[in-house]
Amino acid sequence: MISHKLKIGVGFKTLLGLSVTFWVPFLVLAITLYFFFQAPLQHALNQRVHSELLASIQIMQERPMRAQAALIQLASQQEVIDAMIQQDTTSFQRLFNQYSHRYSFTTLLLSVNTSRTVIARRNNRSGDQIEIGEMLARTLLLGEPQQNIELLSRDFLSKENEEFKSFFWDLALVQVFTTPVLSKGKVIGALVGGIILSDDPWVSNAIHNRIGVEMAIFAGNPAESSILHSTSSLPRNIWKIRQSLPSEASKSLELGRTYTGLVNIEDKQVTTSYELLKDSRQRIIGVIGVSSSDTNVSSIIQNNIFHSMLIAASIGLFIALLGGCPIMTNLLRKSGYWPDSHPIIVK
Length: 347
Description:
Elements: E1 2-3, H1 12-60, H2 62-75, H3 78-86, H4 89-102, E2 108-112, E3 118-121, H5 135-142, E4 146-153, H6 154-160, E5 171-183, E6 186-196, H7 202-211, E7 213-219, E8 227-231, H8 247-253, E9 259-265, E10 268-278, E11 284-292, H9 294-335, E12 345-346
Antiparallel strand pairs: 1-12, 2-3, 2-6, 4-5, 5-6, 7-8, 7-11, 9-10, 10-11
Helix pairs in contact: 1-7, 1-9, 3-4
C-alpha cells in the first residue's frame, strides 16, 4: 500500500481572483488618497513658494541697503559738505571713485544741489537737471534718505556710462537710493546712487545659490505688457530674457493682487509666486516672481504619493489576505496538506 500526497494546483481563475482581491482595493485607495492629498499638497507648495518670494525680496534689498548706508556715511563727511557748498565737481569725482572702489556694483553715483541740478558724476558730465520719481524731491524737502525701484531711461543711464547707449532696453529697472547732504541742519543737496537690475543676473544667481529658487523680474504694467528683464544665468533656468509674464499670473496682478499658484512655462506646470513692483509714485512698473526648482517640487509630490501608496498597499494586502484565506484553506483541505485532514491512500 502506497501513501502519498497530491500537489497543490492553483488555476488561472484562482490566481485572477487573488490578484483582483489585492489590486482593486490597492488601486482604488491609491487614487483616492492621491486626490485627497492633491489640494493640501498644492496649498503647502503655494505657501512655501510665497515665503521664498518674500525671502528673495529681502536678499534683493541687501546690496542697496549696504550701498545706501555707505552713502549716508559719505554724505556726513565734512569734505562732502564743503564740496556741495562750493559746487566742487573735482572733489566729488575723487570721493565717488573711492566709494566705487568698495561698491563697484553701483551703476549710478551723482550729486545734485537743491535745484536738482547735477554737480558731479564719476565722469565729466554735469549741469543737467534730473527728476527720479518723487524720491529726490522728498529727500531735498524732508531731509530723509529714500530707497525705491524706478524705471530709468536709456538716455539717463548713458549720461552716467556711455556703454548704456547700446543698451537693449529703452527703460531699465534700477534700485535707486538718495541721501541728503546737511549743513547746520539745513539741506544743501543730495547724493544719488543706483544699482541696475535689468540684464544683470547677479541678484537672481545669489538668490538661487542661497535658497534654491529661480527669480524673475519683469518690467512693465501687467495690464499692458510685462517683459522679463532679469533672471539667473544658470543653464537650466526655466526663465528667458524678454519672456512675457505668464497669463495665469497677469490676470490676478492686473487687479493689484499677488498671485501664487501654477503657471504654464514652456509646456511645464510650475508653482510660482509674484508680487507687484511700484515706484516712488506708487505706479506699477513691474513684477517680481520666483519659481521652485523642479527637483524640490517633485520630491514633495513623490514623498506624499509614496506614503499614500504605502498605506494603500498595506490596506490592500490586508484585504487580500482576508479574502484569500478561505480559498487557500479549501485548496489545502482538498490536497491533504491541511492539519485536520488525512492523506489520501492509493491502493
